[in-house]
Amino acid sequence: MAATNAHTEAPAGQGKFPPFETQYYPSQFVWLVLTFVLLYALMARVAVPRIGGILAERSKRIADDVAAAQQLKERSDAAHAAYEKALADARGRAQAIANTTRESEAAAADETNKRLEAELHERLAAADRSIASKRATAMESVGAIAAETAAAIVERLVGKAPAAEDVAAAVHNLPKR
Amino acid sequence: MHIDPIEQFQIRNLLPLFNIGGHQIFFTNSAAYMLVILVLVSALVIGTTARRAVIPGRLQSITELSYEFMATTLRNSTGTAGMKFLPFVFTLFMFVLFSNLIGLIPYSFTVTSQLIVTVILALLVFFIVVIYGFWTNGWRFVKLFVPKGVPVYFLPMIVPIEVMSFLTRPVSHSVRLFANMLAGHITLQVFAAFIIMLAGYGILGWFGAVLPFFMVVILFALELLVACVQAYVFAILTCIYLNDAIHPGH
Questions:
Q1: What percent of chain B has pLDDT over 90?
Q2: pLDDT-based confidence at B250, cuts 50/70/90?
Q3: DSSP bridge partners of B16
Q4: Tens place of pLDDT per residue across chain A (177 aa)
Q5: Can you tell me whether residue A169 is helix, strand or coil?
Q6: How far does the CA of residue A77 sit from the closest CA of chain B (Å)?
Q7: pLDDT-based confidence at B230, cuts 50/70/90?
Q8: Which pLDDT value is given to residue A70?
Q9: Cα angle for residues A34, B174, B20 (degrees, 5° grid)
Q10: Angle CA(A77)–CA(A83)–CA(A89) in degrees, nearest 5?
Q11: Which of chain B's residues have a Cβ under 8 Å away from the Cβ of A24?
Q12: Residue A43 exposed, middle or buried by CB count within 10 Å (0-12, 13-18, 19+)
């Protein structure tokens, strides 16, 4: 047991808690100051400015690239807008041309229609007139035929031909149905 | 087999160097690890940025992230006026962080587990705050101890409290880091010792040793977190104290 206890002691043999052993403080102090100051000098002189420079350059580069991209985007937007405008103009013109063409065509067709209609009316009227005249002629002929037929029937029945005026008057005086 | 959890904090005098005011200065294991920190931090921070790549590699990203992390922390605490302290805060952060992380490597030594180290660093911050505070603000710096909006008749009570809290800052600032490192390493060592002790008891002990083994794994992850968090805490407290020197009017 005694041997174990002896072993538990710190190798230096004081049996004290190492972080509280003041005899090592001067050495630690000197080395800490030395290394820390050296590290600080390296960081302050070399590392921090360099990293700061790298980061600044990167952010500048990114900003530049973003600005360039923005510019390109604006240009492409402008081109797109111009294209859209041209397209709309062309469409409008096409619409206008189509409208005028349609109107003129419609007008021409209307005129043709009217002309044809008038012509047809005229022809219809002429035909009507000719029908009426033909009918009148036919009706006169009908009277003559009826008189002839009546004269022939009477001659056959009576044996003697009646006077033409009498027959005509009789046909004429037939009750109209 | 016996393992002493305190032994890892032991300073060893490796090489006597010179004498200052009756004190013999040695090259110690602690000094060796301070040099390791110096070399590693410099190698990371300066070595990886040598190419000044606009598109950073992995290591350069680590450097830049650490830098931006500290720059953001400092700017949030002190505004742009405090940015001239960035090299100091960055150095402090990297020094403490690397000390904490290197200390987690088995058989290595943790510089920040030495009270004298954290006390020196905390006092450095304290004196920078006091000196810079009086330098730039003159006697307006004492407004730091007079909170705004407090009725005058409270001041005799408030001001001593504020002065006390200001003066005890280096204590809490240094002991927080020191105690965290110390306690974490002792806990790890104790549980690691359990593994070896139990394994010494034969087959059954081997099975029993699995439990402290998992404990060590979990604790190690926790200590990794603590190492980073404590470095951050040390740095952010420095930023907050520096802000008092730059804007003492609360």
A1: 50
A2: low
A3: B26
A4: 334 444 444 444 446 788 888 888 888 888 999 999 999 999 999 999 999 999 999 999 999 999 999 999 999 999 999 999 999 999 999 999 999 999 999 999 999 999 999 999 999 999 999 999 998 888 888 878 888 888 888 888 887 777 777 777 777 777 665
A5: helix
A6: 31
A7: very high
A8: 96
A9: 35
A10: 135
A11: 11, 13, 28, 30, 116
A12: buried
> Hunting for tokens 């650490």 — which residue is that?
B66
- DSSP lists the bridge partners of residue B28 as B13
Give chain B's mean pLDDT. Answer: 89
| Residue with the two structure tokens 């742009």 | B80
Find, in chain A, the residue whose alpha carbon is nearest to that of B41. Answer: A39
Q: Rounded distance, CA B31 to CA A30, Å? A: 9
Smallest CA–CA distance, residue B158 to chain A, in Å, is 34
Nearest to A8 among B4, B23, B111 (CB): B4
User: Which residue(s) pair with B23 in the sheet?
Assistant: B20
Residue B21 three-state SS? coil
Q: What pLDDT is stored for residue B153 in this prediction?
A: 85
How far apart are the CA of A60 and the nearest CA of chain B, in angstroms?
Answer: 11
pLDDT at A11: 47
The helix/strand/coil state of B172 is: helix
Domain boundaries, chain A: 28-172
Distance CA B4, CA B6 (A): 5
Q: Which chain A residues contact residue B46 at CB under 8 A?
A: 42, 46-47, 50
Query: Residue B13 — φ and ψ, nearest 5°?
Result: -80, 115
**CB B141 within 8 Å of CB B248:** yes
Which residues 6+ apart lie within 8 Å of B170 measured at CB? B119, B122, B123, B125, B126
- At B156, list the tokens: 């005799």
Q: Is the ipTM of this complex over 0.85?
A: yes
* Gap between the Cα atoms of A23 and A21, Å rounded: 6
> Rounded to whole angstroms, how far apart are CA atoms B184 and B6?
12
Q: How many whole angstroms separate alpha carbon B131 and alpha carbon B245?
A: 8
**Counting every residue, how long is chain B?**
250
> In this structure, what token pair is assigned to residue B65?
């992230």
Identify the CA nearest to B8 among candidates B118, B108, B115, B112: B108
Q: How is residue B198 written in tokens?
A: 């139990």
- The residue type found at B206 is W
